[in-house]
UniProtKB/TrEMBL annotation:
Organism: Zasmidium cellare ATCC 36951
Binding site for Cu cation: 36-37
Keywords, sorted A to Z: Chaperone, Copper, Disulfide bond, Metal-binding, Mitochondrion
Family designation: Belongs to the COX17 family.
Protein known as: Uncharacterized protein
SUPFAM superfamilies attached to this UniProt entry: Cysteine alpha-hairpin motif
Pfam families: COX17
InterPro entries in the cross-refs: Cys_alpha_HP_mot_SF, Cyt_c_oxidase_Cu-chaperone
Residue ranges, annotated region (Disordered): 1-26
Length: 81
């Protein structure tokens, strides 16, 4: 027997078959950020205002913070209704 016949193919052993790698976005899609990862300060301020507002209408009292959050999200390409 020759030494090559018993030696495993090293190049295939070093590169496992990773099916998940094929599912990851490539190019421009990979560069996009997730909505949960942007505008964290604006979202936190908006949520705190809405949750702890002493106003009878928290939505009206916090509309400036809601507007800032919407503007921030829009700057990253997310459209919030």
């Amino acid at each position: 027997m020759s030494a090559q016949a018993t030696t495993p193919n090293i190049s295939s052993a070093m590169q496992p078959n990773n099916a998940a790698a094929d599912l990851k976005p490539q190019g421009e899609a990979a560069a996009k950020v997730k909505p949960c990862c942007v505008c964290k300060e604006e979202k936190s301020a908006r949520d705190e205002c809405m949750l702890f507002s002493k106003s009878s209408d928290p939505q009206d009292a916090c509309k400036d913070l809601v507007g800032k959050y919407r503007s921030c999200m829009a700057s990253f390409g997310f459209n919030i209704a």
